[in-house]
Amino acid sequence: MLAVAHPTGHPVHDHLDCPNRHLDLTVLPSTDISVRTIAFEGPLELHQQRGHHRHHRHLQSGHPNHEPTADPALVPLPHGPVIADPIPPTGPTHPEDLSRGATPAEPALAGDVFRYNLEGYAAGTVTGGGNIPESDPRYRKVTTATELVAALKDAKASGANPVRVIEILNDLNMGYNEVGTLLTSQASNPLRANLPAIKHPALIASGVTLLDIQDFNGLTIYSKNGATIRHAEFNIKNGTNLILRNLKFDELWEWDEGTRGAYDTNDWDFVTIGDGGGVTSGIWVDHCTFTKAYDGVLDIKKGASNITISWSAVAPAAAGPGSFVQQQFDALEANRTGNVMYNLLRTYFSQEQVVAIALPQKKGHLIGSNSLEGLTSYTVTLHHNLYTDLQDRMPRLRGGDVHAYNLFIDSSNARIVKVMRDDVVAANAPLATQLGSTYSFGITSNASISTEGGAVQVEDSVFWGVLTPFRNNQTDVNNPSYTGAIRGTNIQHILLATDTQYMPETSQQSTFLDRGLTWATWQGNSDDPSSTLGPSQAPQVPFVWHNGGGPAYLYSKDPVATLGALLTGPQGAGAGKIGLTTAEWLNVAN
């Protein structure tokens, strides 16, 4: 086999001392993708260099020769009374709106701005609010949730002179308990309380908001600086011609004890499109970043059509002392008696290992509301998106058409963490029994999924660390009603060289070293005889587009070999990455 360059195009320096299972790794500051947790049978020392900073982390594996080791069936729960979870407030207790957050700096102006023009199914139908001057009364700048709600009310298409552009100037902390009674008591309010948090102390205090964005026809919502929306879900429905650009969505996740890791209590998505009455069509989501949500990051429902999601990123939430994620685990650690599942896991895993396994986002894009709903009008384009440690649904389609190209799916860290998790489970039979029968705590390794008659075509993309890139059935492989069609052209698939169940040695075209591990690559089309992409769950069905003969729009693709450096680079995918002028942000073509 031939050794090839690292898939991001950046240099990597690493060393693996196999006899002692000791890894000494240096990652150069060449990519936004970072290694968070690797565990072997021995101490791990990770050195990560970013600029002039050097961090040291020491991880202890969950191997039986190391702490923690005990069988929870033989070890009592920690001493002390069970501490009840805090009772969520029923709403804000203060009149003033406390949602205004920090103001991020604007990035430097980007070159080659034409690269970010609108493409895909939304092209030709979406203009948003158009290119209007900031002095125009239809251009609204907002700094608080109250101002955002007022602008959305004034943006309804039924208005005499509706707002066309809403620029968010700063971060907005939009939890229902943060926005104040003067806002929550308003009549005809698009802002309402979402399902309350149960476990996360910060979300219990802030509350969670559902913001309806509806009844629009020509609206742009954007920021120039990559402002962050926290503690809220955007519910886009019953409208046409909307642009959502350059926003980050964060802090909408909590630990799940209630459904034992199945995450079936709260239905928090960062963005939902089409979930409500009326027709939703013509939506462009561009340069947005989504971190960790309780449910999905962006779901599309009720037959919504002509949608493009471009140059956007799913990225792991920030972890470490004082972070939103660590606040949750500090609360669990302080009350292990009251959190039975967490206590079971902590009997075998260190807290850092639990965090590492829990951190990858579970679900990306669900397209389709209900099983066998029978809708085929979905038309969605995904392009130039960066999915880091996303476990599933890129997308999952239930009927309709999806065209995807230039996706960079980097689940390499999640693959490494999954190895650690699986090794600990295999070494501890009581834990394996509990996780096999009672609790869900693992890492899924899927990517693009077509079900229920859907058609998904993926072109010129990278799937790194994903065991099953393509799937065609998630429900009943013996019932063709649940099977969809999926195909791929010029796809690079990268797995650990030891993942021979998913990538046989005969399909491993080349190898490279990264983080002290040998990775193998395969590249080609899904119908090649040596393909490792799938699908293999159910007998394949003929590929048929439902909305015309397939994508009829013009689109531009970048070479597969450049995607890693391009999408993780300084002007890559996600919010706050590029600087544009006001006109460039508002135009769909520059």
How are the SSEs placed, and which strands pair?
Elements: E1 2-3, E2 13-17, E3 22-27, E4 44-50, E5 53-59, E6 139-142, H1 145-154, E7 165-168, E8 172-173, H2 181-184, E9 191-193, H3 201-206, E10 209-214, E11 217-222, E12 228-230, E13 232-237, E14 239-245, E15 248-250, E16 271-273, E17 280-286, E18 289-290, E19 298-300, E20 305-310, E21 313-314, H4 324-334, H5 340-348, H6 351-358, E22 366-367, E23 379-383, E24 386-388, E25 396-398, E26 401-405, E27 408-410, H7 412-426, H8 429-437, E28 446-451, E29 455-464, E30 468-471, E31 485-496, E32 510-514, E33 517-524, H9 563-568, H10 582-586
Parallel strand pairs: 1-32, 3-4, 6-7, 7-11, 8-12, 10-13, 11-14, 12-15, 13-16, 14-17, 15-18, 16-19, 17-20, 18-21, 20-23, 21-24, 22-25, 23-26, 24-27, 25-28, 26-29, 27-29, 28-30, 29-31
Antiparallel strand pairs: 2-3, 4-5, 9-10, 31-33, 32-33
Describe the model.
This protein has 590 residues and is α/β, with parallel strands linked by helices. The chain is 14% helix and 27% strand. The chain is built from ten helices and 33 strands. The protein has a 20-stranded mixed beta sheet that branches. The longest helix is centred in the C-terminal third of the chain and has 15 residues, at 412-426. The chain is globular and about 65 Å long. Residues 1-5 and 10-76 have low confidence and may be disordered.
